[in-house]
Amino acid sequence: MKTGFQRATAPLALLTLTTLTAVGCGGGGSDDASKTVTVWMYPVIMDPKANAAYWDGIEKGFEAKEKGVDLTIEQLPWENRDQKLATAFGSGKGPDVVLLNPDQIPQYQASGALLPVDRAIADAKSAFRPAALEVMTQDGKLYAAPIYHTVTSTLYNKKLLAKAGISVPPTSWDAITAAAPRLKQTGATTLDYSASNEASLNMSFYPLLWQAGGRVFDDSGKKAAFNGAEGVEALSFLVDLYKSGAVPKSAMTNANLFTDQALGKQQVAMGFTNTPADAALAEKAWGKGNVIVGPALTGPKKQVCFGIPGGLGINARSRNVAGAEKFLAYMIEPAQIESMGKAGGFFSPRADVTVPGGGTFAEEYREALTHTFPGEPHPAARQLMALISPQIQAALTGKKSPKEALDAAAEEANDLLARQR
To answer: I want to staple 234 with a disulfide (CB 3.0 to 4.6 A). Which of 45, 128, 158, 208 is the partner?
Structure first.
C-alpha cells in the first residue's frame, strides 16, 4: 500500500481516443504482469479528512483480504477530470480502475478504453437496482460497477426565507419568480446556480431543461435538441432571474460547490441541485433548524432532479485485470456499499442494502429519488457541455439572447455530432 493518496500527473493536452484498439474481456495485458492495482478516485466525500480516512481504510481492508495485492488509491480533483482521464487513456498510462459517471461511459467504451465488468459483479448482479445497472450499460455490457447512488433536491435557508416573510418554500419556477422581489428587499438573492465552465450541466442547466420538457439530444442521438422551445424557456427563466439580481453574480465562477460560495455563505436562499452532503454542511454552517430540504423542483412540464449511480470501471490497458476485478467485487459487497453510503451521504445502488441513518434529511432525499433522472448518456455528452457552457455565460451576461446562445451552441454541437457519425 502506498500512503499519502498521491495525485496522478498527466499532460493536460487532450489526446484523441479513437486510436485506441478495443480490447475484449481479458484485458490489455497479462494479469500476472503486476500485483499493483491503482485506482483514480475523486472527492466524493465532502470532508477532505473524512475522505482520506475512508479510502485509507479501504486500502487496508482490501489488502488484508487479498494478500499480495498492493492497492494504491490516488485522489484527484474534479477540475479538468475528463481532460486528464482522456489523456491518460490515450497515452496508455491511466489507472487500473477509475470512478465513472454514466455519461462518461459511452465515450470511453466507444474508444475501446474500458473493459466490461460483468464478470466482476456476476455473483451480485441480481441484487442491484435495475436502473443503476441500466445507465452503466452500453451495447448490452456493463462498464461500471455501481458503488453508490446520488440524489439531488432543493435546499432552503429557512432564516433567509423567514426574513423575507416567506413561510412556504418556493418549489416551482413560478413560486421562485414570485419570491425573488421579496428576498431582494432583504438583501438576499433567490436561486443558487453554477455557471462556471467547470460546472457539470447535469447539476446546473440540464435539470431546468428537463423540467421544461426538453432534451439535450434528439431521439436519434445525432442532433442537438437543447435549443428547442423548451431549452429557450429554461434559459430565459435563468437569465431573467440573473438580470434581476435573483441569481448571485458569483454564479459565474461557481463549479457546483457549496462551501465558500453564495449558498454556503447564506447570501442566497435556495439551491435546486443539492446533495445530502450539502445539507449536512448547511446544518453546520447555518445552524440546526435553519435547513429545509424540499421536493425536486417543478418546472412548466416536469418535476425532476438529477441523480445517478457512481461506479468503478476498468481500464482496457490495465496490467492487472484480475486484481482490478477483485477490487470491484470487494467494493460492491454489502459492507462497503453501506460504509460508502454512510461516509458520503449516498444511497444504495443495491436493493438488498439500506444505508442506515442517512442524516437528518434522509427521508426527504429518499422521496426525491422517485424523481431522479440520470441524464442522457452519449459518446459526445461531455464535449457538448464544453460547447454549451460558454454560451450560457454569454446569455447571462447579456451578450446574446437565450435563443441566440443556444442556437450558437447547437450549431457547434451538430457539427461535432456529424463528424462522429
So the answer is: 208
